[in-house]
Amino acid sequence: SVFSWRYGSHEMRRIFSEAFKRRCWRRIWLSIARAKRDQGILTREDYQKIEAQTDRVDVLASLKIERVSQHDLDAELQYFASQCGKTGATLHAGPRRRISRTTPMP
User: Fold this and answer.
1) CB of 23 within 8 A of CB of 57?
2) Residue 104 predicted with pLDDT over 90
3) Residues in contact with 61: Cβ distance below 8 Å, sequence separation at least 6, in sequence order
């Protein structure tokens, strides 16, 4: 809103930005991928492909998908998976309900 940009501190605007929110979700998915790797479910190479894309957030590309899906979390997951190639199929939307109910991570 206009008020958050006018009266919010730089740090508050950063924390509540679309890019920061989406980066937090990606870090959660990366943590899940790390657990899968540690359990032998995901190869080291596949994990590295996911890790390499974790901070490559493109809000505009995700918003394009969101216009169709009508869900920001699903749209970000789809875009993140597309960045990871075939490995992206291992990213799973299963934990999304739990993620969307939690507060943003710092």
Assistant:
1) yes
2) no
3) 79
pLDDT of the residue at 35: 94
Q: Are 28 and 88 in contact (CB under 8 A)?
A: no
| Rounded (5°) CA angle 103-83-21 | 15
Total-model pTM? 0.80
Spatial contact of 69 and 75, defined as CB atoms under 8 Å apart: yes
How many Cβ atoms from other residues are within 10 Å of residue 7's Cβ?
9
Which pair of structure tokens corresponds to residue 68?
A: 């169709």
- Rounded to a whole number, what is the largest CA-CA distance in the chain? 49
Burial of 57 (0-12, 13-18, 19+ CB in 10 A): buried
Query: Could you report the per-residue pLDDT of 18-49, keeping only the tens digit for each?
Result: 999 999 999 999 999 999 999 999 999 999 99
Q: Which two tokens stand for residue 43?
A: 């190869």
70, 77 Cβ separation under 8 angstroms: no
- How many residues does the structure list for the chain? 106
